[in-house]
Structure formats: C-alpha cells, structure tokens
C-alpha cells in the first residue's frame, strides 16, 4: 500500500503544480497577447501574431515539464486520447479560464480608459457568417493541436529543433491567416477572459465549439494515424503497470 499512497500523493502534487502553471500561463497569454491588440496607434497583424506566438512558445518552454497546455482545446484533446483523466481536464480548464479572466482584468487596469474599447476580445468579421467563423477556428486550432501532439510524441527521434518554438510558430502562422476572419482565438480561454471583463459575447459560442472540435480531431488523427511506433525494445516496467490505474484516476 505504501507504494500506491506515495504514487497518489506525488500525482496530487503534480496536479496542483499543473493548475498553477495553467493559471499563470494563460494569465500571461491574455495579458501580453491581448495587450498587443490595444490600438495605441494602429494595431499591426504581424505584431499581434508574433506577440501570441512568442508568448505561447515562452510559456510552453517554462511549463512544458509540468503541463503547459494553456488552452482548453488542447487539454480536451489530451482527455479524448487518454493522456489525462477527466478530473484533471476539468480542473485545468477551470484554471485556464480563471487565469484568462485575471489576465484580462490586469490588462484593463493597466490600460488608459480611452483605449479600452474591446481589449482584445475576439469577434469575427461581419462579412462572414458564424458558421464560417466556426470553420476557421476549427481548422486553425487543428493545426495547433496537431503540432502539440507531433512534437511531444515520446516515440519520435527525428524532432531535432525546439518543440516550444514549433508550437509558437504554429500559433503565429495561424494568426497571420485568421486575424482578419475571426481574430484568431484558437483558444476558448483566451476568448473567455476578455469577454468576461468587457462583457462582449457576440458569437462567443464560435470560440468554444470551433477550437474544441479542432483540438479533438487533431488529437484523434495523430493518435490513430500519425503517432510514431514504439521502439521495439521499449516495455513498461512491472511497477509502471501496477501504478497506471492510480495515475489515470486523476
């Protein structure tokens, strides 16, 4: 029993560390990324794209060993592929949303009233329908989630560059494409924070449904089609097999 108790306590500690990492990471994503959207002179698409992409890369580099999802769509993708349990998924999403709200509140507090306006809240272009916006958000989040799964595949030995940078660049690339369409959320929590603080809920369902579907599709496609095979010599130890139910419970 001692071994299982130790495993449970260690896993509980990992969950709390993960929750804190998700809170801090999403807070800074919204603070910095949405801060780049503030129209001091004229917001620039390249500036905004780089702000979000580099921030994501930095946060993943800092917290990737703990969690570093900072995105409910990625977290739910991990849930459907059984990388994390349901309880951990729910706690992570709540932590991400709270962090996003705090980040948006700080940004509003730091910004002069004359510049408040939308404070980076995501709204899709009035020339496209909500369903077209849904499609854009689904596909750009698919790119992000597929990148996350590809660079974090433990069975791959061909990933020579920086996984964090690859993830950040996928965010930058999709922002360069989609800002003019939907504001390029790719992240329900990133949209939720400014929406709460600025009370802007126009078409908000798009920024949950689109990214979550994209994240799930990418996760399943990589898991069942593109995942690298295990090395022939790899096998679980007896201890790992015994403790696996304990890990998956949380």
Automatic annotation (TrEMBL):
Tell me which Pfam families the record gives.
MIP
Task: State the coiled-coil residue ranges.
Answer: none
Q: Where is the signal peptide?
A: none
What's this protein's family per the entry? Belongs to the MIP/aquaporin (TC 1.A.8) family.
Q: Name one GO cellular component term.
A: plasma membrane
User: Could you cite one Gene Ontology molecular function of this protein?
Assistant: water channel activity
Gene Ontology terms: biological process: chemical homeostasis
Q: How does it sit in the membrane?
A: Multi-pass membrane protein
**What's the superkingdom here?**
Eukaryota
Subunit comment: Homotetramer.
Where located? Cell membrane
Query: What are the transmembrane regions?
Result: 20-41, 47-68, 89-111, 131-152, 164-184, 204-225
Sorted keywords for this record are: Cell membrane, Membrane, Repeat, Transmembrane, Transmembrane helix, Transport
Q: What protein is this chain from?
A: Aquaporin
């Amino acid at each position: 029993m001692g071994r299982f108790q130790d495993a449970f306590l260690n896993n509980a500690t990992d969950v709390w560390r993960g929750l804190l990492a998700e809170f801090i990471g999403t807070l800074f994503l919204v603070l910095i990324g949405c801060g780049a959207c503030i129209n001091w002179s004229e917001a620039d698409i390249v500036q905004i794209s780089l702000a979000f992409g580099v921030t994501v890369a930095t946060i993943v580099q800092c917290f990737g060993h703990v969690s570093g999802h900072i995105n409910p769509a990625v977290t739910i993708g991990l849930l459907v592929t059984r990388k994390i349990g349901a309880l951990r998924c729910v706690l992570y999403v709540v932590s991400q949303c709270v962090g996003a709200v705090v980040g948006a509140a700080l940004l509003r507090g730091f910004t002069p009233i004359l510049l408040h306006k939308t404070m980076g809240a995501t709204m899709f272009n009035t020339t496209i329908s909500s369903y077209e916006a849904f499609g854009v958000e689904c596909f750009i989040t698919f790119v992000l989630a597929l990148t996350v799964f590809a660079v974090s595949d433990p069975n791959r030995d061909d990933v020579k560059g920086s996984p964090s940078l690859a993830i950040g660049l996928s965010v930058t690339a999709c922002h360069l494409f989609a800002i003019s369409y939907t504001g390029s959320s790719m992240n329900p929590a990133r949209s939720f924070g400014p929406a709460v603080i600025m009370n802007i809920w126009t078409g908000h369902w798009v920024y949950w449904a689109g990214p979550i579907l994209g994240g799930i599709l990418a996760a399943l496609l990589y898991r069942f089609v593109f995942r690298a095979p295990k090395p022939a010599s790899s096998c679980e130890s007896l201890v790992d097999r015994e403790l696996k139910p304990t890990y998956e419970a949380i």
